[in-house]
Amino acid sequence: MDILTQIKRLIVRRQYRFSEKATDELALDGLDEADILESILMADRIRKTIISTIRSGEKLYVIESANYSGTLIYSKGKIAHEGGTEFYYFLISSKRSRRSRS
Question: Do residues 95 and 29 lie in contact, with contact meaning Cβ atoms separated by under 8 Å?
Fold first, then answer.
């Protein structure tokens, strides 16, 4: 199974979590949880995979996709495990227009 399909399955199964930063960024952009979940489900590819140098090769996935309303959303996250359970962990999320100002 490819990584995007794996991430989408975790979303559908409600196996995801948000970092405090991701939650704050959603609120700042006037987005809610449904917006970012829709954008992941609508994605047709992972834009970039980043190998973390801080956490010994941990893979971070950058996804840019519109939600059902057409708002382009940028997110970065990772597949994580805790207590034998796999979940998708959102690290960053924002409207694409905010991301381009960074």
Answer: yes
Residue 28 tokens, joined = 């700042």
How many other CB atoms are found less than 10 A from the CB of residue 21?
12
Q: Model-level pTM?
A: 0.87
CB 36 within 8 A of CB 93: yes
* CA–CA dist 76, 99 (Å, integer): 11
d(CA 28, CA 44): 26
Residues 29 and 1: their CA atoms lie apart, in Å, by 33
Q: What are the chain's domains?
A: 3-99 (3.30.2310.40)
Q: What percentage of the chain reaches a pLDDT higher than 90?
A: 81
Tell me the helices (H) and strands (E) count for the chain, helix number first: 4, 5
Determine the average pLDDT of the residues in 59-71: 94
Q: Which two tokens stand for residue 90?
A: 């959102």
